[in-house]
């Protein structure tokens, strides 16, 4: 049975992994954000965790029309009400527009209807923040997407790929009338990508169906999905004639979020002592979404600093192979 081979890390890569444990406070914050009045921002998974804090910061400080794409209607509508109360208190802002579009990235058939609903509401999309994701899910058959993919690959990579493909036309058209650097796609990855199989994808068993359901293999499968997000961010500009759109990836930071739902009590105890609040991760997302220092293909790390990715993920031939495979997988749902 083939097993994943994880490349060893260079000193620079180890340094970045360790950077997440001791991080300076964010320097690019609300005081630096543009107004975004009349602009539209979509945040996937914006009803909880980092996404919630990102939506709150956008709604409180930028005047953008913000939409949350998420699965749970009741939970999201409650989150929107909570955000409005919090921004009234923290930012002295009332009546900010925050919309909701229901989508379940566990089921690719829900993505196109969600995009169609959004396009009935808006004719533009300026910034897309691909924040939603799952982590360390079991590798058993019970934890497969509706289409049969390993949960992290299906939700974190294929869900993002299909959503972005369907939103590409409106993003690109909007970018033609925007100042350079305003239109952006932010792919939320992780420094966990350093644990991904060589090349990012474990082609011999990308669904991890033949691998034991161990903590190590769960992390490698998660790392595979996060490497996939980096490859998507780097490849998107090469596959689209859209020079006004910045596509970049991030590691938001080592944060305590609902992504730890599948962790053991011991892991949760350790995580509590080495992580930062979700609000800090929002500053990383918004650095990638708004900072004039970010360019296409960049990778940003906590909490708004330039970072690097594992060397093999810079191979364009390998990235093209992944991109073409992803396109094949989503084609039935376009």
TrEMBL record:
Keywords recorded for this protein, A-Z: NADP, Oxidoreductase
InterPro entries: NAD(P)-bd_dom_sf, SDR_fam
Pfam families: adh_short
Keyword NADP: yes
SUPFAM superfamilies, A to Z: NAD(P)-binding Rossmann-fold domains
Superkingdom of this protein's organism: Eukaryota
Keyword Transferase in annotation: no
Gene3D superfamilies found in the cross-reference section: NAD(P)-binding Rossmann-like Domain
Family: Belongs to the short-chain dehydrogenases/reductases (SDR) family.
Protein name: Uncharacterized protein
Organism: Lodderomyces beijingensis
